[in-house]
Amino acid sequence: MTDYFANIPAIKYEGEGSTNEFAFRYYNPDEVILGKRMEDHLRFAIAWWHSFAYTGGDPFGGQTYERPWFGDSIEAAKMKADVAFEMFDILGAPFFCFHDADIRPEGKTFAETTKNLETIVDHIGQRMESSKTKLLWGTANLFSHRRFMAGAATNPDPEIFAYSAATVKTCMDATLKLGGANYVLWGGREGYETLLNTDLTRESENAGRFLQMVVDYKYKIGFKGTILIEPKPQEPTKHQYDFDVATVYGFLKRFGLENEVKVNIEQGHAILAGHSFEHELALAASLGILGSIDMNRNDYQSGWDTDQFPNNHGEMALAFYEVLKSGGFTNGGTNFDARLRRQSLDAEDLILAHVGGMDTCARALKSAAKLLEDGALEKARADRYAGWETPEAKAMLGSSLDDIYADVVAKNLDPQPVSGRQERLENLWNRFL
Fold this sequence. Notes:
Blueprint: E1 12-13, E2 23-24, E3 32-33, E4 36-37, H1 38-42, E5 44-47, H2 48-53, H3 74-91, E6 95-99, H4 100-103, H5 110-129, E7 134-139, H6 158-177, E8 182-185, E9 191-192, H7 200-221, E10 226-229, E11 239-240, H8 245-254, E12 261-266, H9 267-272, H10 277-287, E13 290-294, H11 313-325, E14 334-336, H12 347-374, H13 376-384, H14 391-396, H15 401-411, H16 422-431
Parallel strand pairs: 1-2, 5-6, 5-14, 6-7, 7-8, 8-10, 10-12, 12-13, 13-14
Antiparallel strand pairs: 3-4, 9-11
Helix pairs in contact: 3-5, 5-6, 6-7, 10-11, 11-12
């Protein structure tokens, strides 16, 4: 045990009227919504990197945090894990997520780095034995070290491709050993700055082959979880191969992986791609590749990924409506890919940031469930497209331009526009917030 969170109580549900900041007002794990416990709907996960590895830096300034576990030793990594599980227990968090670089120190050689990873994975496994918290997903950090400055799977150097593939193998092994529900590929630098030094065809084909290897290895080791890609636009490279959901789906189709890989969608990344979060979720659900989500928010006055905790339940309700409408999570969940502000230095800040995020999501889920259960929005949508349910409309889709032309002329069609009723539906939505 450590004393980092000394005197901070376990967070319990006390209801909307509570004024206790160390309590949940909306997140009641056992509350049943649409036939399922709230905890099982939301499947909250804590991000190891932002909560325990982040030092408080941003693009314009360095470290502001001083944590007792900061350091490059095995002992520091074990302390970090101990602190992490103490926080998981305080929050009652059902899951966590990690990159390999978050949990283990870098070694002088690949073999030493792998040994360090295995040592810390064993330590985490021991901590999991006495905790309810499980692993939602693991992933490899193939972007921070200078060797990945030109990408990992898309790197022009085949030795870096090989190093990256070997690293993913070790991380998949770690995820399997810890009982992870998913494995994520996050291509932080799988993109390019300029075409002057880039072979697009080679890089995309290598990325496709890399992912095929990952899927093959999943079956070889008997990993039952889902392989996920996290769309990532613009940051840090201008032209990202996994820019958004549509781009990722096209990539999966190209390499015959659309039935093997799903997506982990982040709110902040959706915004950087010029989309709304709910658009990316709805599109992924429509394509059958919605797997999991990273929950955070961006500062809309900033042009980079600020990774702030969610605090707008109306905005989040739009997202959870799409999740619920798609049938909800199976292997996936809600990972807080969010970090404290660099001026938030205290242990209490780390706990309360998660309390607020969990409450915001819980309140959003309840609003989304009420509207879905009411059915008014889905009825309005069905009414708008009702014409396509007629035998004539269905037959038209199987006919030719010549046949359609003849029919329009024969019927002397003069169709008139019909209101989309957007404002009325926005008013309907607001009644449930």
